[in-house]
Write a structure and sequence with these properties.
- This is ABC-type nitrate/sulfonate/bicarbonate transport system substrate-binding protein.
- It comes from Methylovirgula ligni.
- This protein has 16 helices and eight strands.
- It is α/β, with parallel strands linked by helices and 340 residues long.
- The chain folds into two domains: 209 residues, Periplasmic binding protein-like II (D-Maltodextrin-Binding Protein, domain 2); 127 residues, D-Maltodextrin-Binding Protein, domain 2 (3-Layer(aba) Sandwich), CATH 3.40.190.270.
- Strands 2-1-3-8-4-7-5-6 form an eight-stranded mixed sheet, with helices on both faces.
- It is globular and about 65 Å long.
- 48% of the residues are buried.
């Protein structure tokens, strides 16, 4: 975004902006909980609205497709990569490193205790076929590959079993709420495990650890994955009102600093957003010395490129994206300068 770019577009009046974020530790989550976005834009008469809290399903779906104008999204990179690959006019303006815990669990009595025991066994993978981008399936398959590799195994050494899901991520407003959502996403695979239709499933984060303990399941293998979270914005808003975008990003920068300086208070907010107890949050090490800061450092960009390659090779996105051309560094640079 250059000065010339901005001059090309008229400075439009904006009456509302939309936000959304995933149920993972982000500075956006802190800013939303504290009402800092509303504080920033209320004097301008700009309403700040939640995409996931909307009653309209088409609006809620923008959490995954980024089809809504004047919107920001911070969270998992899979929907952002999908939206961009579908031609959505969005700009990548920030990345955040997340250390996310994944494990493979099996029920007691299954005889599965170590990775080699998984040879020839069935691992359940939910298939949310009604969604335009099945990010849960993508994340699960990515985890399967990484976890099996710890013991020198590949997908061909196990049997992947589809677990059909007859609903969508945004089927109703209650399903889109933060608190129960991560638990509900485990439900199809968990039920398949309890019914004996599969031998093991992937457990995601603190919610997965809570399920492991609830059912006395064996953790076959578990580790942290480095995952790049993306902050994206509608490009027309960025071009016509870069001032709004910079102010929004500045609030995220300040929220990140608050969270880094107040880890216990931030943990309580994140655990509530994820619908889990702080105890499980700690065990999953969701907060383990990781920064909430936004960045566009090359190591994070490289992580995003690797994830894009995985999505492309596994059929989740149709086209390769020029990640470097997608990035606009100016909003974050200006926000950091404003925040001091």
């Amino acid at each position: 975004m250059t000065t010339a770019d901005v001059a090309t577009f008229p400075k439009i009046r904006v009456e509302e902006i939309w936000f959304t974020r995933c149920s993972v530790p982000t500075a956006s989550g802190l800013a939303i909980r504290h009402g800092w976005f509303e504080d920033e834009f209320r004097p301008d008469g700009i309403a700040v609205r939640s995409i996931r809290g909307a009653s309209d399903k088409n609006v809620r779906e923008s959490h995954f497709t980024h089809s809504l104008a004047n919107s920001f999204r911070q969270g998992g990179s899979i929907p952002a990569l999908y939206a961009r690959s579908q031609g959505q006019d969005i700009s990548l303006i920030g990345l955040q490193a997340l250390q996310s815990y994944r494990s493979i669990i099996a029920l007691p009595g299954s005889g599965i205790r170590k990775l080699d025991d998984l040879r020839g066994r069935r691992i359940g993978v939910a298939n949310w076929a009604l969604n335009k981008i099945d990010y849960w399936r993508a994340s699960t398959l990515e985890s399967v590959d990484g976890l099996l590799a710890e013991g020198g195994l590949r997908r061909t050494d196990v049997e992947l079993v589809d677990v059909p899901v007859a609903t969508s991520y945004v089927g109703d407003p209650d399903h889109s709420k933060n608190t129960p959502r991560l638990n509900r996403l485990h439900t199809p695979e968990l039920l398949a495990l309890l019914r004996g239709e599969v031998d093991a499933i992937v457990a995601h984060g603190a919610n997965g650890i809570a399920l492991r303990e609830q059912f006395s399941a064996a953790e076959v293998i578990g580790r942290h994955f480095s995952e790049p979270l993306t902050l994206v914005v509608s490009t027309p808003l960025l071009r016509s009102r870069p001032d709004i975008v910079v102010r929004y990003v500045e609030r995220i920068v300040r929220a990140a600093r608050w969270g880094n300086a107040n880890p216990e208070e931030a943990k309580r907010i994140f655990a509530a957003e994820m619908g889990t107890a702080e105890y499980w949050y700690d065990e999953a090490a969701e907060s383990r010395s990781q920064s909430l800061d936004l960045s566009l450092e090359e190591n994070l960009v490289a992580d995003l490129k690797r994830r894009q390659t995985f999505l492309l090779e596994n059929g989740f996105i149709p086209f390769d994206i020029d990640i470097d051309a997608w990035i606009d560094r100016e909003p974050l640079q200006q926000a950091l300068a404003r925040a001091g």
